[in-house]
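The protein record minuted underneath.
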Amino acid sequence: MIIVLKPKISRPQENAVLKEIKRLGYIPHIMRGVARTVIGAIGDERTHQSLETLTAWPQVETVMPVQKRYKLVSREAHPSNSVVHAGNVAIGGKKFQVMAGPCSVESEKQLMSTALAVQAAGATILRGGAFKPRTSPYEFQGLGEKGLKLLAKARRETGMPVITELLSEDHAEMVAEYADILQIGTRNAQNFQLLIAAAKTGKPVLLKRGMSMRIEEWMLAGEYVLSNENPNLLFCERGIRTFETYTRNTLDLSAIPIIKLESHCPVVVDPSQGAGRAELVSAMCKGAVAMGADALLVEVHPHPADAWSDGAQQVTPAAFARLMTELKPLITAVGRT
């Protein structure tokens, strides 16, 4: 059940509703918006008293049943769009955001030159991998905490929030100490204990779609974040595995309006992983903007041919600058800034 509270009620009034929900045998999950607070109550209505009695309470606006398997992620639970804040950047609001940076942090020079270049071109969030999940155990696995420290230094010098991938429950607190957004990659999209650990840091969580994951499974994975008292969830479409071999993955742009229809959470698109080919990144970005995405996650490297990971899908700073110029009229056309 979803309980929507009236605007501007006091904290004691809110706590009274929470207490009643618990008394009736349900587990409440709070989602505080700008204007209203929404409470998702999880429990079996067949064995517990109905929460519809709360409609008589003066501080309650509506009580609604939720039919979806994903309760808190659903738009039924939260009709208005959620906005996720990372530092001074708001994702999901009027302004379209671009996250950009190298696939892997390789050195201070490489990271800082890329960070300054993407910021100058208009990026608002710095991406970079300190821990890298690689298919082969013999490939570069990332600089680890050294890479995190370099990302933190780049944040201090540019003012841009940082997004980086979390691979292990054991690293959750350490990565959260350095990063503003925790990325859960495709290989860990259904690693539920990792999702819980990420959620419990309190940091925004960007959940990439699993390479063979249905949309319902993706949203149910996101439910693990919201159900652990963390309302800051971002869905990221990064391409799925199909029979096609021309591209690394098949970027499913139809997932954007579907998630927008089904969920209130912001949607990010990763065209670099989605296509796996630098020459396709620009077109994929433009498609994502047109389909209603809230942000992009683009891989940029000063010398892609020398990159320690995924060089074929990383664009140069010059190509990224051209892309940002080309995106501006499209962003305006879809009503964003």
About this structure: The chain has a mean pLDDT of 94. The chain has two domains: 2-64, 84-333. The two ends are 36 Å apart (CA to CA).
